[in-house]
Amino acid sequence: MIPLYWWLVVAAALFCIGLYGVLSRKNAIGVLMGIELMLNAVNVNLVAFWRYVTPQTLTGQVFAIFVITVAAAEAAVGLAIIIAAYRRRDTVIVDELDIMRW
Amino acid sequence: MPTNVVQIVVFAILTLMTLGGGLGVVSSRNLFHGALFLVLSFAGVVGYYVLLDAGFLAAVQLLIYIGAIAILILFAIMLSRGLMSQRQSQRNEQWWIALLVVVLTFVVLAVVLWQVDWPVASDQALASPSVAISQLGQELLGPYVIPFEVASVLLLVALVGAVILARETET
Amino acid sequence: MEFFFNLVPLIPLIPLLAFAAIVLFTHRNNRLSSNIAIGGIALSTLVSWGVVLATILAGEHVQVEGWELPIPWLPTGTTVFNTGFAVDGFTAAMLFMVPFVCTMIFIYSQGYMNLGQPNQDPRYARFFAYISLFAAGMLGLVVADNLLLLFISWEVMGLCSYLLIGFWSFRDRDNEQHIDEAQVKRARAAALKAFITTRVGDVLLFSGLALLFSYTGTLTFREIFRPDMLEHLGSISLLGMPAVTVIALLAFGGAVGKSAQFPLHVWLPDAMEGPTPVSALIHAATMVAAGVYLVARMLPLFVAGFETANAPALQWVAVIGAITAFFGATIGLAQDDIKRVLAYSTISQLGYMMMGLGLGSLVAGIFHLLTHAFFKALLFLGSGSVIHGMEHGHHAAGAHGQTSQHDDGFSANDMKTMGGLRHKMPRTFWPYMAGTLALVGIVPFAGFWSKDEILAEAFQRWQESGALGLPFWVWLAGTLGALITALYMGRQIALVFWGEPRHEAATHAHESPNSMTGPLMVLAVFALIGGLANAPFLGSPLHHFMGGVHEASEVVHSATVSFNFAVAGLSTVVALLGLLGGWAIYRNYRAGEVEPFQRWLGPIFTLLRNKYYVDELYQLVIIRPVVWLADQVFNFDNRWVVDPLVNLVGAVGRAAADISLLFDKVAVDSGLVEGTAKAFNAFGGWLRQTQTGRVQNYLLVVAVTVLMLLGLYLYL
Amino acid sequence: MDAIVLWLTSLFPQMAVPTARLIVHIVYAAILSFVAPVVLVVAFTYMERKVIARIQDRVGPNRAGPLGMLQGFADAIKMLTKEDITPAGADRIVYNLAPGLAVIGVVLVFAVLPVAPGVIGTDLSIGILYVVAVGGIGTMAVLMAGWSSNNKYALLSAFRVVAQLVAYEIPMVIAIIIVVLTAGSMRMGDIIAAQNVPFLFTLPVAFFIFFVANIAEIGRSPFDLLEAESEIIAGFHVEYSGMKFAFFFIGEYMHLFVSAGIATTLFLGGWRGPGASEASILGALLGFVYFLAKTVLLIFAMMWVRGTFPRFRIDHLLDFGWKFLVPVGLLTLVAVALVLKLPFLSSPVLQWVGLLVANVAVIVVALAAVSLAARRTRSVALRSVAGAER
């Protein structure tokens, strides 16, 4: 089997890529995609730990399912917010959505 | 357990898909392409799950991430099309700090993960993971029934919230 | 009779269902709503009394060990939160009192909120929904077999208290002209104050519970109080104390907040802004007693690891109780508002209960809790009846045209405007007297027996230790408190019921409806005979009934304190002296005079009248800085950045216009203004760089911080 | 399939069982992904044309070959020889990827389609979930095609596709859940084994919902808004021509077959029939014939529907999905779950009857609700008309 460390590093890499997307993307949808990547990295971690550390109990998979649920809800609400903001302010660029600024 | 060559090759391909897709997501200028890269990355993760003997999760990943979330994102991109001209930069001005931070984070994580001695289960346990979906169902409706119900409430709330947010304001 | 135990879960459930029914279905129908609420609580009372009877008949077995119904609840992964219901002698004693007092007050409320009258409260149904929910919370607290359910009920009560104190915090401008704007504001402030102040205690309590759960993995009383569990808790050291003491003190923090003990007592007097039945129910009889109940329930934790006489947690309880008992009573001496006097009296009496518990005597504290609930509810309801009568008198006076409409100074609560009401409202007066005598502690009224037991306990402890230690001071505070209690009650009844009417309203006051005076009579009976429950000459029945509930823990022991004629005699003499003195001094008080006490005590009286300036202290030390900070943040641009700029523009314009005439002044002015503006502008400009309004910026900061923390954690 | 593996190993004694199995699977996969599309498309286009023609009182293709049977091949040759156009301004990569994806999404379903006793790519424990999951890929392909064509009609069509497919995926999944609940498994083999009485007869409502939702998922008339010629020309593939268009075409007809096959498996008992068994090659062949017959019957029904019903309007379409199919599906789900858990329905026969009764009850309730709603809207409409006249 593939060593656990590989999975963890891959997941960490995916997480970092997602984080970079969240931090550097101008477009709100791009930010959302970054978040999805991060959540996926978390899931890979959970499943890898399940498979390697506690293969007899399904805790890891159960948690992954909950993460997926949350991701689905988050995507729906996030995109709804983006669409609403787009309608009101004609932009999906995060930097321009700053009416809360000082 | 011995490492199978086929497994390594498959893992490498999947990693290429996943991380390559991820990089595509954060670097492509065309947002639509970014979303397609996201799909590629999700597909890689599906493969990961299959490789990790989590068939049910693989199907769920396919169904929800590719079948629902990615399509939703593509849809949103098409709805807001024409705003983001491809000539203008897709990165904000802090991207280089972000890159620095992210690379540092990765290095730290990789080092830490390497140093930890993970309590990997015995070979015997590794050889026979519990993969029955019925057991998953029992777990979800047994010990995890409260989180399960909370998740259902969350989905309902998200559904209603998304509808209200995205609805045209009737004025 | 065992059958009744199976109905225990219904006791809190019935009022809860009544609440749901009112909120969901019947809220449009006022009469039906109030009847549902009353019916619910009455049914609950019947069940409760059935349970009490069953407990009595079941004998020592149930009274000490208790009956219980555990319910596994909320399985989450590997952790399961258990909840459930339990009844033992202690619970049964509470179950006798709580639903019954609730019922009386519910019936009273129907009249007080002017059912069917033209000035009926527009949120009438809502009021009954709230108090039903409250009753559910209080009863749930009593029958809970674990701290989780207890805490949930505790918070439900806190919420209801908030809602009910602020019941008149908004008004319908068209229908409620009788509620003035100032009152609305006061109600809002009082509700907030009560909620936030008790929250301080609740946070402490919650951290105590979390600590307890993390050590023991359970919140069920029976399991916590197992001797081995207590020993285990005692062996862990935390902050230089045994963990069990820390937990006990944190729980006591919660009780201090809820039971309005010093220094968190400030919310209770303000809580009198709520409707009077609420004051009687929540802020005299039941909810404030919940803190005492909690301490009593968790008494083994307070004692564990020490001798009863020198357990530090217990000593804290005694000290705080004694301070509160004395200190509350003295403030009550100088208040004019009839309900505030009673509020401070409540604080003081709660202090007595804490004193009793702090001396390690479960029965003394709880006995006083029970009798106090009856006579204080009676006093509050009586004062409500008086206020009601005064308000009607005021209306009547206005209607007769004898006085100018709504003269500003009038307050129906002010004792100085009353006087001579004993002839006008005899059916309020006599129960009120019974309540007063009970509170003051005159034989054979209820308060005499219960207060005496606490004092006797303290006295005996003092005699045992033989030194002027804590028991002595507790006893002294208690006895002096009794004197002052008698004084302010004498003052109150003299001002309200004797003398001449000092206002037209008092002249026109008339008796309240039967639904209000009826409960007064019933409660008066209990104020008279309630003390028999634990009277020494009957062999202290209550003591045998509930004294043993903590025996299983092997740390709390109960021994009967023999009746001490010296103590009882002294306190009776003191009480009589105080009562007659207060009555004699104020009997002939006339409107506009300087109060006798004010003449004699001078600055001390002012200190008392201003409640030792505790509120002002809090205002200065806590509230002002917080509000100031909030204001600064808010004003940052408004005043410091924008305004100077505006000033600058104005100054420049004026300079151009008046350059020849006011050259000097303008130069100075614009120089100063411009300078100030520039300085602040630069400062603000520098500061606002951090507030970019860009999510990703903030997130980047978060990421960097996490990274740095990670680095610190790993490599340092 | 195991029989073939056995036969192979007996033919070549040196061959190990896993190798033989691998070979058999590869061959099977090759048949499904290369031979099946061509055969299916040719056969079903011909069938469709003939059926529609008959419904419309025409003859249909009758020139190429006997009875026009070679018409499909002629069309294929025509398509292959046509010029391959990529419109200017199109997103080249995405544009070229889309047709392939459209076919892949369908071919993947074949992996869990039991076409004959013992003949299935892999009998996954999550078989039917896999089918639903893979369905998302087709949607993706349509979106990509619509977006990359740089054509407003294509884009509009893509929007419609998403709205329609997402809306109808939910009732479809509900219908599938009802079946899974009754069968107690998501494995295709178990679902077939559970159908001693085909679910069509015990769960008619679920079958109806699945059937309708399936038509919508394929995008066939009367749910063919994504390619409504009068509104948006050809729809998402308006810019495609030649081989790429052929891919979409193939994808559509394979989707038709696969959907009908899944419906057969879920509701008509799959390959089950007298004499069909896994034991012998003959039994397997018989099973394949049963499967094919049932599937073709369903496809015929779909064509019949196409020939009969006019096209929905977009809002009617979404209303029908969300306000009729989904509630009815949920109602059926609850009813079926209750029936399955009722203690006194202990024998299988009693349970079948119970399920049927529950379904009939649901039908009655649904129809009553619909007629009530219709009456109300009609009276409102009549009143407004009357008001306008006055």
How does this model look, in words?
- The complex is a heterotetramer of chains A (102), B (171), C (716) and D (390).
- Chain A is mainly α.
- Chain A has 3 helices and no strands.
- Chain A has helices at residues 4-24, 28-52, 59-89.
- In chain A, helix 1 packs antiparallel against helix 2 and helix 2 (28-52) runs antiparallel to helix 3 (59-89).
- The model of chain A has no long low-confidence stretch (mean pLDDT 84).
- By secondary structure, chain B is mostly helical.
- Chain B is globular, with a radius of gyration of 21 Å.
- Chain C is mainly alpha-helical and 716 residues long.
- Chain C is 71% helix and 3% strand.
- In chain C, the strands form 2 sheets. A two-stranded antiparallel ribbon of chain C has the order 1-2. A two-stranded antiparallel ribbon of chain C has the order 3-4.
- In chain C, strand 3 (237-238) and strand 4 (241-242) form a beta hairpin.
- The N and C termini of chain C lie far apart (67 Å).
- Classes of the chains: A mainly alpha (102), B mainly alpha (171), C mainly alpha (716), D mainly alpha (390).
- Chains B and D meet through helix 2 and helix 3 of B and helix 5 and helix 6 of D.
Strand content of chain B: under 5%
Q: How would a crystallographer describe the biggest sheet of chain D?
A: none
Q: Rg of chain D from C-alpha positions?
A: 23 Å
Question: What is the overall shape of chain B?
Answer: globular
Task: Classify the helix fraction of chain B into a percent range.
Answer: over 70%
Mean of residue pLDDT values of chain D? 80
CATH class of the domain at 3-116 in chain B: Mainly Alpha
Determine the oligomeric state from the structure: heterotetramer
Strand count, sense and closure of the main sheet of chain B?
Answer: none
Ranges of chain B where pLDDT stays below 50 over 5 or more residues in a row are: none
Count of distinct structural domains of chain D: 1
CATH topology of the domain at 3-116 in chain B: Four Helix Bundle (Hemerythrin (Met), subunit A)
Helix content of chain D: over 70%
